[in-house]
Every structure is written in structure tokens, then in C-alpha cells.
Specification:
Length: 408
């Protein structure tokens, strides 16, 4: 069953943009052969018949098309650094945030907003959040990324400035709030937590309840290729977003989402573009009449370990239920394509918390069929190790659930 976030009538005028995007993609020699048909005016069925665009295809197209500054500046950003080879995406002045702000206003003039998305290194989130805050007319503290040793002093400063809002990737926000909770820092004025870049982490709620009990989450969903696709409010579930009217979301029969931009200013040729996220179109409990999409996360949660599927997200969820564990991450080591070891890294939930890693290891090993079968002859190849820091992407602050390492 395939479904669109817009009716044919609502999508109609925007499909002119999709037709132009199709012509641009067709002008790329490496892709031209994939698009034999044309796109009828107002026909969503024909759109659904076009081949989906994967990250590599988009990279090929952008290398050929090289969007130029026509009406405004052209910014270059890098994407894909967390889960694949880096790719380039483009955005004009304002990062399309005026359109986002017209439909979603988490911030207002009275807010003091901390922008904790990392700036620089060609990562776009800090700049788009800055554009949104600028449109909101609030006070902005452009903090960017901060090293762990600096959290204490900054938290003191932020409390003194009576900050009302903070934004960042959930991985980074979790470090902030876990630190604040463990050290007794409080942000009593904080009411809003903006997030983008990863799925919301439910464990954040417990830290927020202690550090900033009045804070509520406001989420954006998107990518460096599509820019912001949808948003939600504290009244929506954390995995449900309302697509913006110039973003056409399609849930394909195979359960994957793809995105087509209907915004004439869009520089990236986004036509049935797949981020790799699975999802579905749904209603939302907030009662807003517009369509909503539930994002079910990447389909790549299962990896092959000696011919058996290991569900990485499940293993992490299990480890993170262990008392004293703040976060967990799976590191798979391979040699010539064969798994030589699986390690679960665990980050303690603050100073003094000492999870019982030996017991956790026994439990995970015993209860996980893939692990106790794949490593039955070398059980020592499955380890659980406490660490001070998970393996992160220094550029985006994101922490991938799975890190694959080639053994030399
Ligand atoms: Zn909603």
C-alpha cells in the first residue's frame, strides 16, 4: 500500500516543481536512462512510478548539476558523515526556514535560546536553527559544541542567563542533561528543547524531569538533502511529524519513506529521495487535521554476524535498561568481511554509577541467540566494556548505534 502526505489537489501546483526536478535529473548522463517517462500534471500515481533516488544517486546528480547562486547565496553542506561516505548538499540564504517558521513556532520573542548544534565543519543544523531563532526574534546564545570539561561552567552561565530554550542533537542533549543531573545543576527557566538530527531518546525525559521539569520537546525531521521535512510539538508522539506543505512525503509499499520537494527555491534535486528511514503516514494524537508521518528509523538496525542477523537497536535497548548505564553502543570488528568480535560499549550514568558489566555481559550473551550461536566456540569475542565516551562523530555530535571496524 502506498500513500502520500498530500491529496492530488493540494500537491497539484507543486508538481510543476517536481517536473522541473525530473528534467534536471534527466540531464545527468549517468541517471538519464532511469527516467524514460514524464510526469503528468497532478498525477501522484505517475510520481510513485518513478524510481526512488538514493544518496549515491543524489551525489552523482549534484556533482553534475552544481547548483549556482542565482537569487541568493549558495551554502554548501556535508551530509552522510554519520552512516556513510560524506556527501554534499546545497541550501540558499535562510535555509528554507521562513517556510518552516510559517507553520511551526517553538520560539517567540521572550525566549533565550541556546543553539547547541555544532557549528562549522560543513554541518548544517546549527545554521538552520540560527535562521529559525532569528525569524522568531528571540535572544540567541550561539554555543555550538562544547567539551565535556566545560559543561559545568557553561551550565552555570546558562542558568544565570535564565535560558528558556535549548536545541541540539539528542545525543548531545543527553550528555548535557546527564551531566547536569549528576552534578546537581538545574535550569529552572528552561521550557523548550528543540531537537533534530536523530530520533528522540526517551531516556532524556528522566534527566529533564530532574534538571528542567518544565521543559517540553519540539522536534524537526529532515536531512541535509531534503532540509526540514516535518515538525512536531509536545502534543505529538516523538516519532510522529507533520510534513510541511511544500514537502511531499510518500510511504512506499516496502515501508520506506521518500521525499519530493515542491519548493521552487530548492537547490537539491529531491525527487522520491530516500533517506533510508522506514515509516508510515498516520494520524496524530495532537488533533491537528494535517497528515502526519511516523518515522520508524533506519532499516539498517540488523547486521550480519557470521551469517546470523543481530538487531543492534535491540541489544542497545537491553543494555540501556541496566541500572547505571546511560548509553550503549555496539562495535563490530571484522576481518575480510567476517565478524571477529562484538563489543558493547557502556557509558555510566554519571560519576559513582558503576554498572555491573560482567553480569550484563552474561545476560546479553545468554539471551541473544545470534551472539551465543555465532560465538559458541569463542565466547570471549563478545565483550561489554565501560567507557568514558562513546565513539562519536566529532562533526555532527551524533553517535551511531553501530560502529564497524576493520581489523588490520
Ligand atoms: Zn501532531
Amino acid at each position: 500500500m502506498t500513500a502520500f502526505s498530500l491529496t492530488p489537489e493540494a500537491a497539484g501546483p507543486g508538481l510543476r516543481v517536481a517536473r522541473r526536478t525530473l528534467e534536471r535529473l534527466r540531464s545527468v548522463p549517468a541517471l538519464a536512462g532511469r527516467y524514460p517517462g514524464h510526469l503528468d500534471a497532478g498525477s501522484l500515481e505517475r510520481l510513485a512510478e518513478l524510481p526512488p533516488l538514493a544518496k549515491d544517486d543524489l551525489n552523482t546528480a549534484l556533482a553534475h548539476l552544481e547548483p549556482a547562486a542565482e537569487r541568493s547565496a549558495t551554502w554548501l553542506f556535508q551530509s552522510g558523515g554519520s552512516t556513510g561516505a560524506p556527501k554534499v548538499g546545497y541550501a540558499p540564504t535562510g535555509f528554507y526556514m521562513a517556510g518552516v517558521h510559517a507553520h511551526w513556532q517553538p520560539l517567540d520573542r521572550t525566549d533565550v535560546f541556546v543553539n547547541a548544534w555544532g557549528a562549522g565543519r560543513m554541518w548544517g543544523a546549527h545554521f538552520l536553527a540560527a535562521a529559525l531563532a532569528d525569524l522568531s526574534g528571540c535572544r540567541i546564545i550561539a554555543l555550538g559544541s562544547v567539551a565535556r570539561e566545560e559543561y559545568g561552567a557553561w551550565l552555570e552561565f546558562l542558568a544565570a542567563r535564565r535560558v528558556t530554550a535549548i536545541g541540539g542533537t539528542p545525543s548531545v542533549l543527553r550528555l548535557w542533561f546527564a551531566h547536569a543531573r549528576a552534578t546537581g545543576s538545574r535550569l529552572p527557566s528552561l521550557r523548550k528543547v528543540l531537537w533534530l538530527g536523530e530520533a528522540w531518546q526517551p531516556q532524556l525525559e528522566a534527566d529533564l524531569a530532574a534538571v528542567a521539569p518544565r521543559a517540553e520537546r519540539w522536534g524537526m525531521f529532515g536531512s541535509t538533502e531534503t532540509w526540514v521535512v516535518g515538525t512536531n510539538t509536545p502534543h505529538c508522539p516523538a516519532d510522529v511529524f507533520h510534513p510541511l506543505p511544500d514537502q511531499l512525503v510518500h510511504a512506499d509499499a516496502d515501508g520506506l519513506l521518500d521525499f519530493t520537494t515542491l519548493n521552487p527555491e530548492m537547490l537539491n534535486p529531491v525527487l522520491r529521495y530516500r533517506t533510508g528511514d522506514a515509516g508510515e503516514l498516520t494520524g496524530c494524537r495532537c488533533g491537528r487535521p494535517e497528515p502526519a508521518m511516523r518515522v520508524l528509523g533506519r532499516r539498517d538496525s540488523v547486521v550480519q554476524v557470521r551469517g546470523l542477523g543481530l538487531d543492534v537497536d535491540e541489544l542497545i535497548a537491553r543494555a540501556e535498561r541496566e541500572p547505571g548505564v546511560a548509553r550503549a553502543q555496539v562495535v563490530l570488528t571484522e576481518r575480510d568481511g567476517r565478524a571477529t568480535g562484538v563489543e558493547v560499549l557502556v557509558l555510566a550514568a554519571g560519576r559513582g554509577a558503576a554498572p555491573d558489566v560482567e553480569r550484563l555481559r552474561e545476560e546479553l550473551f545468554g539471551d541473544t541467540f545470534t551472539l551465543n550461536t555465532a560465538f559458541q566456540h569463542d565466547p570471549g569475542s563478545f565483550r561489554v566494556r565501560p567507557v568514558d565516551e562513546l565513539v562519536g562523530n566529532g562533526r555532527t555530535g551524533k553517535t551511531a548505534a553501530l560502529v564497524v571496524r576493520e581489523e588490520s
